[in-house]
Design brief:
Transmembrane segments: 15-34, 77-99, 111-129
Strand content: under 5%
Structural class: mainly alpha
Organism: Demequina zhanjiangensis
Keywords: Membrane, Transmembrane, Transmembrane helix
Shape: globular
Pfam families: DUF2752
Number of strands: 0
Order of helices and strands: HHHHHHH
Largest sheet: none
Protein name: DUF2752 domain-containing protein
Distance between the termini: 61 Å
Number of helices: 7
Helix content: 55-70%
């Protein structure tokens, strides 16, 4: 058996990861678009908010996605500005890059150290700032 035949046979395996993750994200997004997280559907509640009464970096994320899918960008930004402006675009870019690298046989996605440190640091700062009294009216709904 030639090396080309072995490589061609592995193509579905390389694409299985991105395909499963993309399908799960699309299904979850579709469910969030159909069911309103503020009242209907089965959505998880934030354990941190329930225990402390303070917002975590992800609080309002499902409501923001629901508002985005309904075409209300302003309300989505009020629910969670970081999810709308950072997490969703980066997630879409990461999935697209994963598909590209899997298709082109490039291997895993390299994560730069500045990003691995910077993103959690940014989320930590957002976590603190959104719970400070002067900013809470603007960063929580």
């Amino acid at each position: 058996m030639t090396a080309a035949a072995v490589t061609d046979r592995r193509t579905p395996h390389r694409l299985a990861g991105p395909a499963v993750v993309t399908a799960a994200l699309l299904a979850g997004t579709a469910y969030t678009g159909v069911q309103d997280p503020t009242g209907s559907g089965v959505f998880p509640s934030c354990i941190f908010f329930a225990a402390t009464g303070h917002w975590c970096p992800g609080c309002g994320g499902l409501r923001a996605v629901h508002s985005l899918l309904g075409g209300d960008l302003a309300l989505a930004l009020q629910y969670n500005v970081v999810v709308v402006l950072l997490i969703i675009p980066m997630g879409i870019a990461a999935i697209a890059l994963w598909w590209y690298r899997a298709w082109r046989r490039k291997g895993t996605i390299p994560v730069p150290m500045w990003f691995a440190i910077g993103l959690p640091a940014l989320l930590g700062v957002f976590w603190i700032v959104r719970n400070l009294p002067p900013f809470a009216p603007y960063l929580t709904v």
